[in-house]
Amino acid sequence: MASAHPLNLVDVTVPQDAHDEARRFYTQTFGWTVEVDIPGYPIMGTGEGGSQVGLMWEGNPQSGDLSKFWKTGKAVPFLGTEDIEATLAEVERQGGKVAAPARQTGPVKVAVFEDPWGNEWFLCESDKSGASA
Asked: Which of 5-19, 42-56, 112-126 has the highest average model confidence (pLDDT)?
């Protein structure tokens, strides 16, 4: 039996093409607050113990080769892992596939995988010094 890789939902990124309006909608409708104000990608807290929500506009040039995954109308879940390479290997052993290999992006490593049904999931691994996404 394969060993489990504990994963937590750490972020859901919401691609959209109306950046200021999206920020206003989520802060005013749900009372979420911007915790990390990255240009083009503000990250909001959803409350104590909740996951984060990031607002990425479709076609954001800062996302580089990952831009193909940001599509308006399709939220992107991020799963936190302590070992991104081991998690990707297990995904493949279980019938999924790596859609974008692990790469360092600021204080986190990110990768994208598809489950056996074609759903895309991002993985993120915080650096060992304790910084987070």
From this structure: 112-126
